[in-house]
Amino acid sequence: METLRKQGSLMKLRRYFCVASAVCACFGASLPPARAACPSSGIYMPAEANAGQADFDAHCASCHNADLSGNAGPALTGPKFASYLNFTKITPPQLQAFITSQMPADAPGSLTAPQYNDIFAYILSFNHYPAGQDPISPAGLNCLSLLPYPGPK
Amino acid sequence: MQKSKPKTISARTLTFLSGTALALSLGVAQAADPPENPGVETGGALARHAAPAVAGTIDVTDAMTADSAKTGTNWLATGQGYSNQRFSPLTGINAGNVGRLAAVAIAQTGYTASFETTPIVVNGTMFITTPMVNSKQAVIAMDAATGTTIWTYTYSDGLTQICCGPVNRGVTVSGGQVYFLSLDNNLIDLDAQTGQMVWKTNVADAQAGYSETMVPQVYGGQVIIGSAGGEWPLRGFIASYDAKSGTQTWRWNTTDSEKSWQGDSWKTGGGTVWTTPTIDPKLGLVIFSTGNPNPDLDGSKRAGDNLYTDSIVALHLKDGSLAWYYQEVKHDVWDYDAVSNVVLFNAMENGKMVPAAGEAGKTAFFYIVNRATGKLIRRSEPFDMQRNMFAQPTKEGVQSLPGANGGSEWAPPAYSPLTRDVYVLGMNQLMTFTTENAAGNIPGQIRLGSTFKNVEHGIQNGTFTAIDVNTGKIAWNQTVPQPAMGGALVTAGNLAFMGEGDGWFDAFNAKTGQKLWHFFLGAGVNAPPVAYQVNGREYIAVAAGGNFQMTYPLGDVLAIFALPQMTH
Predict the structure, then answer these.
(1) Does A12 contact chain B (CB < 8 Å)?
(2) Does A75 touch chain B (CB under 8 A)?
(3) What pTM, to 2 d.p., does this model score?
């Protein structure tokens, strides 16, 4: 729920509509999210991804490279990232929770919730997951499937 | 977890491949490898077009390796022989003249990243590995006296998952072959003369979180390896491969399926073997240390002692069956791996000298066990600070020393049969251990179970300690400004060498601990030094490329030192 802190009035409005599905998703992780509650386009806003690039470059690129190709840290794009997603079947809420609690590796949890959201939006954007009208939210993350991988081959 | 599909290409086939085709065939199939950063792989004379070959003979036998610490001309089997003593009998460079020691070569590899290689030296030729940079890593053969490149073998990695830097700790050379492990888990055999690949075998699954950073050990036609990856939910192992064909001959899993684990937590219980084992040919044992249980910091779902993690373990060489074990830390929740490689020596037990094995723990104790039985003979006085050690982590956090890196991390110690001291690198890093988040359970996803963090303004320094193996008492203890991670060398010239994170390379009087000489290399000296001879002249060599995990300044240098030659 930390990830809700950033949201503006748009989000507040949206929350009324999304609470039900978020609760469903929390208590039955294997159930597909209620379709009506999910946005028809993407689950993050372009502005978040734009803001996320600077944060990524400052806090993540030293290990993952500015082009996300990976170096000391794993690749976050391309065939290697696709291979990781296929093997782990990790979900967006799981991946976001991991990044929020364990990254950056040398200072885990040291960024703000909005920064983590922006960085996650940037990674999604870089990998061709579509942007939309709404900011990243727990409900939105539950609506996204990382597979099939849409990104650079 | 393992998908073992030995893939072999004969040397004969390879000689017909062009350089480009060869390079393509070596990597794991990748439709679109990320483009290489052209600014990185510079420096180093890459002599790959001249059909280069090593001039001298490289046919290293087991007997040569076993005797390498007696002759001192070569540096073999990463730890200078099967005992991992890192002792050189050479006396040309000694406590009396080390003040005149000077650099004779600064060889730059072009691979700027954590540089942890131990050079191997055979009849005047040195073999090193580089770290991985932009998905490529290299093995380089160079002239051990001048640092000039003879051949370079470049490997392109597929998927890698690594916790602590894109490192490789070196090769071993046996029977005219160079063996090394790639970060993406291939065991590779190169022709030592030419650097051409003979065979390659996948030994573990990178998707599951395995990676390879260690130097293999070769004895009796067997290549013995473990793996890194203890931060992932996987099962540690040690395995033996046939040196000629690369086929697996035995495998021993480090987590016990019968007892000491809650439920089936042993299936993903970690315990990786990530530094080079020692061999006792007489007892027919391979002896090694095992890493932390997984999740590292959350023991709530793996109740029990979690055997055989954080242990010194001996297996029978012939079939990999368990001979004995000694567990240093039961039910670890602090990432207190037994990681620094095991060292063999003789030590006093009840007034009698017996074959012993020792390991420098992350706990800051040096553990000494009887080599035939595994029974603890003694553990040393603490060589680093211990405060709140073994206090259970809490939600708010508990501050403890040693931190999660030790004590002693992977840095191999050295042992001198002359002083009967073992020389250990250590660190004081005050850390907070928490239980702030539950471990997820996603195959292939790193799983620490919680976090450990350096305490702001908490103590941060390194140590270099001589410990008497017969008493466990500290002979001397030096402090350096940065936590020490690299390795030790001790020589019959009464010198003990080690490197510092800020770039200093130091020599100490092995008996007294007095610092006698140092040289600044710019990048962190975070690799083990070696000593050898070429044409009767003694050399000291060490890699200086810094350390990713400790954020020490990076570089790409292999530095070679000698005493100035008399001019007439």
Answers:
(1) no
(2) yes
(3) 0.88
